[in-house]
Amino acid sequence: MNAPATAPSIDSPGVARRFRYWQTRTLIATMFGYAAFYFVRKNLSVAMPAMEADLGITKASLGLFLTLHGLLYGLSRFVNGLWADRANARYFMVAGLLLSVGANVFFGFSSTVLLLGVAWMINGWVQGMGFPPCCRLMTHWFPPGQLATKMSIWNTSHSIGGALAVVVCGYIVAHLGWRWSFFGPAILCSVAGVILFILLRDTPTSVGLPEIVVEGDTGTHGEDKGSAEYKAFVRTHVFGNPHIWWISFANFFVYILRFAVLDWGPTLLKEMKHFPIAKTGWMVGTFEVAGVVGMLLAGWVTDKFFGGRGSRTGVFCMIGASVALFLFWQFGSTPAVATTFLALAGFFIYGPQALIGITAANLATRRAAATAAGFTGMFAYASTLVSGWGLGLLVQRSGWNTAFGVLLAIGACGTFMFILAWPAKAHGYGVVRSSRGLSKAK
């Protein structure tokens, strides 16, 4: 049911001012928290070349770490999406970050393939506690008509966290060794967990504000998520929605391209392009930084020109990402040129990466936002079967040139999935009342 009748009006000046403050605070806090998750997740990609030399671990084994981590992370995002729709987002997100800190410390002290694999699998599961509560918070604090733009701003946390992680860990590995690539981020993220706990709150009602009223959405505030009616809603609006399936499949292909650069970037730049390892961290970092610009522009274009339909933006972004990777492969022979084309690839790939989760959440409405976003995330991280173990084995047997041919075919498949989702509506709501007044849903 909707917020109680005695709740203060969201349109009164005092309440509107407080609401805007908490919207901004929630956006900044979740961005800070999710960026921190990257420090204890993407540090492995920078450490891999040094681990290979120090421990004699093969590329196939390192790729298997990435794959098992990704599969568990994807499954965890789905399962934790179901739980996050029922939990306090503040406690849920902080717990996930601190558990990931523990897994990184365990990994840093390990030396055998078995223990390293177990540690990184544990990390994969607890990392899945990061995104679902963020998605839930965004759908509770912002109306559907603003979500593509706001979520694209939030999604810069991926690139900020990823870029800082690879740059900082690149220097750590070069000067302190690969183990401190896990101990250092664990220390930083312990502090970040405390800060996040101080900054973050749950839904508007937890700070005495009214929920955003969405007419036609009968089950939001205080709804029994174990009821038969709610379960039927989820079956119909999430698992029974063909457009959510299409964008979920598209997410599989988007993430293969994204992780091919993030997870293997330092290795391929060192082996294929023969660039020094300290420089590769900065080069992969530009992929993330350019992604910030790309996702912000993609969110604005989606709301401004496509009426909130993120799958339409995805078509053009996937074409651009595929072209940029081809140019990097064929013409990236110097650090400057290679960095330019990597940045161009990041600019395009982060548009759909930013929009897919919130597109699914809007289609499922805030009643099942975390569940729908978690469902798309499960497909995203199933991609590590290809981008992790599969790509590592392919490179080991056939080389990087063959791998890039496969990546271009994957880009074409992702484009096709977005084309299938082109007719999808912007969201599943009727009439939306936001903090700026009443607006008709499109």
Please, could you describe this protein's structure?
- 76% of the residues lie in helices and 2% in strands.
- The chain has 442 residues and is mostly helical.
- It has a single domain, classed as MFS general substrate transporter like domains (Growth Hormone, Chain: A), CATH 1.20.1250.
- Strands 1-2-3 form a three-stranded antiparallel β-sheet, with no helix packed on it.
- The chain is globular.
- It starts with 12 loop residues before the first helix and ends with a strand.
- Residues 1-7 and 431-442 have low confidence and may be disordered.
Can you say what the CATH homologous superfamily is?
MFS general substrate transporter like domains
| Helical residue percent band | over 70%
Spatial arrangement of strands, main beta sheet:
1-2-3
- The proportion of strand residues reads under 5%
Instruction: Give me the secondary-structure category.
Output: mainly alpha
Largest sheet report: 3 strands, antiparallel
- CATH topology title: Growth Hormone, Chain: A
Number of strands: 3
> How many whole angstroms does the radius of gyration measure?
21 Å
Oligomer: single chain
Number of helices: 17
Distance between the termini: 23 Å
The poorly predicted ranges are 1-7, 431-442
Overall shape: it is globular
Give the rounded overall mean pLDDT. Answer: 82
CATH architectural group: Up-down Bundle
